[in-house]
Every structure is written in C-alpha cells, then in structure tokens.
Amino acid sequence: MLLFGGKKAPDQVLFEGYAWIWYDLLKDSGRVSERTLLGYKSYLNLYLIPFFGKQAFADLNKGTFDKFVSWAKKQKLRKKPITNETVNKIFVPLKMMCRDAAIEYAWGNTYNPFFGFKKLPEDDPYEKIFPFSPGEQEDLIAQLPDHWKPFFRFAFCSGLRQGEQIGLKSGDIDWAKSLLHVRRAITLDENGKFVEGRTKNRYSRRTIKLTQSMFEPLKAQKRICDRVGGEYFFCSTTGKRVRPSNLRKRVWIPTLEKANFEIREMKQTRHSFATVALSCGENPLWIAKVMGHRNTDMIIKVYSRYIEDGNGSPDGARLDKAFQGTKGKDA
Fold first, then answer.
1. How many Å apart are CA 252 and CA 256, to the nearest integer?
2. Domains in the chain, please, with CATH?
3. In the prediction, which pLDDT does 266 show?
4. How far apart are CA 308 and CA 319, in angstroms?
5. How far apart are CA 236 and CA 229, in angstroms?
6. Is the Cα dihedral 224, 229, 233, 238 positive or negative?
7. Cα–Cα distance for residue pair 117/66, rounded to 1 Å
8. Which residues contact 13 (CB under 8 A, 6 or more apart)?
9. Distances from the Cα of 289 to the Cα of 39, 106, 216, 236, 271, angstroms
10. Are 69 and 120 in contact (CB under 8 A)?
C-alpha cells in the first residue's frame, strides 16, 4: 500500500508530510514499545520536523546532515546542549523513514542519502557505572526508612530493572516453588505517562529461581503489602503504585546524602547486582538470565571491568593454584 497513493520521485515527497504518516503506521504496527514511540515523537517535534520539515527527500545528503548536526547541537534540551549520543539516536528514526520511503516509492538502491555520513563518536555509556559494594549496600539500607528497606534490598540482590520491580504483583511470586515471574513493567507511553506495559523485550519476560538473599526481602515486603493492601507488590506507604520520580526525590537521594554517598542513579542497584555476582564467581549465564539479557555479551563486555575477586585474591590466583596442582602429577 502506498502512503500517498502513487509513485513519486524523491524531490516530490516532503519530509513533514511523510514523517507523521510514517509515525502513525509504526504506532499501529505494534512493532515498537510505547516508550520508543515517545522518543521518536520527541525527536520529530523537537528536531526533525523543525529542520527537515519543508525539505524533500531529494534534499537529504551528507551536507544536509552535517548542517543538521551543527543546528541540533545549538538547540538546548533542559538548558544543556545535546550530546553526540542523543544526535545519533535522532538519526535512528530518520534512517528508518528514508529506508521506508525508498521502498514505498521504489527508489531502489540508488537512493542513499547517508552515503559518506558517519555516526558521531560517543563516550562510553558504561563509564557511568558506579556499583555499590556489599558493605556500601548495607550502609545505605541501614539509612532507609523501614518501609523501603525490602524494596532496595531486593533491587540489590535481584538486579531487576526498576520498571519491572515496580510492576510486580503478588500473583507473580510462587512462594511454594521459590519462583518469580517477571511478566510486565511500568513504563512510559507515547505521551510520557507512566503505564503498565510490556517488558523491555522477550528475553526480559522471564522466570527467576529465587535465591535465599532474594527470598528474604520478598517475605518482608509481603507483610508490608498485605498490611497496606497494595495492588502492586512493591507499593508506596499508602498502598499506591510507586512513582519513580517521587521515589528518587523523597527516598533515594535523601538516603544517599544521609549515608554520605555521592548521588548516583537508582539503576546502580542493577549494576551492583551484576558486578557483585561476577566478583563472587557466579556463572555469567545465570546472571544474564536473572537480569533478562539475551546472552552473556552484555555481562562480559560491560561489567567485567568493574569486578574484583569476591574472596580478595588477585587476578589469576585461582588459575595459578590449578596449574600448581598438576605439577606433582607430571613429575
């Protein structure tokens, strides 16, 4: 089906008219999450339409994109210039639109507006990982109000994403078999409103065999949930669904300050789980499954640089011990 009912050349299709029809079709397809739609809509409103709106697809090329990058970096978001990482993200839906328009109008492989244009260099996003050691975790939890101790203890020992943990319901826990079923997440819809939605991807929809350290805070939380009658298992002090912004401002940051820690994002609880688990010698495959990753690539690539041996021995010490044990047999 043609978006505009007929074949048109690249110089006959204006960006703005195509962009919103493309967006609506993508939205109706269900191929991307509401949160992704929110990002694409923001990029269209703030950057792509203001700059490319009156241009035709024939006008898009490396020179145009270079000018766009220069312009976009002068537009401040929350009073700060946008980063190369954000600019690269803006180009994602733009590339999708150019590809789909080329298919829609049969422009063929000759239409390649991105020829010669390269992705902008980015800082390593994982340099912002600041995991808490087990001792630091205990210091932090000790400063928390009693209501929130099980929430953050479970966050540290399970590595769940914040939206997954907030979206848990009592029925997701099989107490007899010590299983936790992660089936949903609290996420943003395309209008920026928090809603109950799908997990990040199909690998995030998982069942976790609970360890003792996971099971204990869940038991403590059950008493809280039963008392306040919350719809969601981890609930506010009044039994309502946890609001991430309120949790951060009213609980997380004040507790960090009280414990004399630098301000870190709440997702450091997830990073802390991965680094501590690796340090203790846990199987990366198990860590990846608990965290909802497809495989161990993320675990090895991201977290291995932050770990220390959980037993305090230097790198290679256990390997040396293994080889030393074979010498007598070879003699």
1. 6
2. 10-123 (1.10.150.130), 127-306 (1.10.443.10)
3. 96
4. 15
5. 10
6. negative
7. 8
8. 4, 56, 57, 101, 105
9. 27, 43, 20, 28, 14
10. yes
Tell me the pLDDT of the chain (331 aa) as tens digits.
Answer: 444 456 899 999 999 999 999 999 999 998 988 889 999 999 999 999 999 999 999 999 999 999 999 999 999 777 788 999 999 999 999 999 999 999 999 999 889 999 999 999 987 666 678 999 999 999 999 999 999 999 999 999 999 999 999 999 999 999 999 999 999 999 988 888 999 998 988 889 999 999 999 999 999 999 999 999 989 999 999 999 999 999 999 999 999 999 999 999 999 999 999 999 999 889 999 999 999 999 999 898 888 877 765 555 566 666 566 667 655 555 4
7, amino acid identity: K
| Angle value at C-alpha 35, between 256 and 79, nearest 5 degrees | 60
The token pair at 61 is 């090329």
- Ramachandran bin of 229, using left for φ above 0, alpha for ψ from -120 to 50, beta for the remaining angles: left
In 259-306, alpha helices (H): 268-279, 284-291, 297-298
CA 241, CA 322: separation in Å to the nearest integer?
Answer: 51
Q: Can you tell me which residue has the tokens 């010590």? A: 178
Provide the token pair at 109: 């492989």
Nearest to 141 by CA among 230, 216, 246, 229: 216
Q: What are phi and psi of 119, to 5 degrees?
A: -60, 140
Q: For residue 44, which amino acid is it?
A: L
Tokens 């050691």 found at: 133
- Extract the tokens encoding 102: 């080329």
Q: Both tokens of residue 195?
A: 């809603």
Evaluate whether 118 touches 137 at the Cβ level (below 8 Å): no
Q: Which one-letter amino acid corresponds to residue 291?
A: M
The amino acid occupying position 89 is K
Alpha-carbon distance of 25 to 16, in angstroms, equals 15
